[in-house]
Amino acid sequence: MLYRYTLILVVLFLISCTGKKERGNLRYSQEQIDSLCLDSTKELKADVSRIVSINLNPFLKEKSFDFSSHVQKVHFVPLATTDESLISDIYKIVLTDSMIYVFDDFKGGGIVIFNREGKFIRRIKHGEGPGELYRLNDISYDKENKELLAYQPPFLQFYTSTGNYLRQMRLPFGFYNFSVIPEGYMFKTFDSSGNEHLGSRRDNTLLITDKNFKLKCAGIRSSTTNICYGGYSYLYLNGAVTMITHNYNDTIYCYENKTGKFEAAYVMDYHDKKIPDEQLKSYLQMNRRDFFKALSQNNNYYFIGEYLENNTHQVFFLRNDYSGLQTVVYRDKKTEKLIGGTNADVSLTEIPAVAFPKTAYGDWFISVHYPNANDHLLLKSSILTKEDKQTILNLKEDDNPILVFYQLDDFFFFFKCRFFFLIICILLGVNIYMLIAFQQYKKNVTIQMESLLKGTDKLISFRTNMVADIENCNVRLKDIVVRDSLSNIRYLSDFFKHGQKEIILCRFSETNCESCINYSIRTLLQRSNVIGNDNMLFLGTYRNNKLFNRQKVFYGIDTLNTVNTAEFQLPAESFGYPYYVIVDSTLQVLKTFVPNKGTPLLDNECIDLICKRFFSLKDELL
Fold first, then answer.
1. How many CB atoms lie within 10 A of CB 529?
2. How far is 472 from 316, CA to CA, in rounded Å?
3. Which domain holds residue 525?
4. Residue spans of alpha helices (H) in 256-316
5. Model pTM?
6. What pLDDT digit, counting tens, does each position of 107-158 carry?
7. Is the dihedral of CA 345, 351, 353, 354 positive or negative?
């Protein structure tokens, strides 16, 4: 009898589980779908009659640009440091006239609230209770009702401006970003994934609803199923308008929040070195790993929707994974002049390195600055206020970051003064003959200087590697304990297999410049068929394994021998650049080499000689 009862209970359990699974597949109820009123939804067509083309072609190379001289005003807001307010990697910052909301990586997504002076208000708790966070996707602010909104699928959660929980509303569709607009919401998706119930509107990536999520209009169609790789935001609120971007789409749209007017405002022109559309489409059909690998092998540029603007200026961001560089271009809205490049020339005695902003508000751009040992140089600044210098004095290196608010001047201000411009034209006319006469002379001097600079780079590279060999050769490394990519504890010597005599270590750290790391790893991977994957070990130093694992995919080494360690005592660490070390099975250093991206031909010759000496003979014996 007991056996029968047991059998009945098992059968009922299996039926119950099956029923739950079937019901779980119905992501949205018919009532939710009906509430969208899809029959009355209008197509949002962009007006292209006033579109402005932004020529970014002059910036498609490694280029430095003068940034400090264009910074007109700076203001620091130090975010208070307490046990509760400690900030992880920052995804997004939302500002109001009185508050600062930081969306960070704490427990997969958290919200820290400060006032505009940086005083800590609260961190919203994590959990699955009412108002608690457990899988946060995005945040926004309702200026009219003074409410903070948080999106964690499938709900919008509402809080007071200081973070007290109010209510939640269930959403009838999925999305990536959202923004509050008068009498409704704006939602941005990647593609149709998860929104098949929208029918003919499923390919629209811009959705405009009322406060009850009735779908009023939809626009920006995308038929491509994109890999979820892009910026953290595609909606940029600027006063009465919202600027809208889309990954791998070079058009920037403008939506007037009150009138509903929608137009294509700008299109970026970088055709000289843009990834061809057909080639990019083929990349988007790949899996995530192959996608990143294809981008890293293509020396062209692409746009993933990263853009900012304040009342006076705009910022455009382009990426090139082959070089590992990000290009930033500022545009003055009044003069339409552009400045930008890959490296911002910043005087560290005047302002911090803030040329790549995180957000914008009013006339301000806002960047994040992490306290460091060089901050004392800012005490000499002529642009910082006494209050900001006192903030620098009070900082500790493990404190929360500072939000650096900065305003830019009008690029080429003298063009606004007609009289001054006329005087310049007269002076240019008087001196035109002298300029022509000296043109050839300047050209010859330039050629000679470039030749000297190239020779100087080679001398620096020779000197660096000579010092590296003298200081590091015959040093025996400690058999340190490390964690591999699977978090297994291993000794350094464990990476030598039976009969293996030497391996090459590629040493890098998150404090090194990203383009130097990318160059060093790519140069080594190009010789993997000679060296052998088992004979390479990539030894990084990052603050946590989550960040390290994300960078491994970006660098294309996630399938190779990789470890993240803070302990590595070798004189070469003082160089501050990535380097290679050849060690034998006793962990004795046989050779040290510091690659220099400024002398790739010299590097290739030296590395080929290293491969021939330590690895080619081994392959022949095998």
1. 9
2. 44
3. 458-621
4. 277-283, 288-296
5. 0.65
6. 889 999 999 999 999 999 999 899 999 889 999 999 999 999 999 999 999 9
7. negative
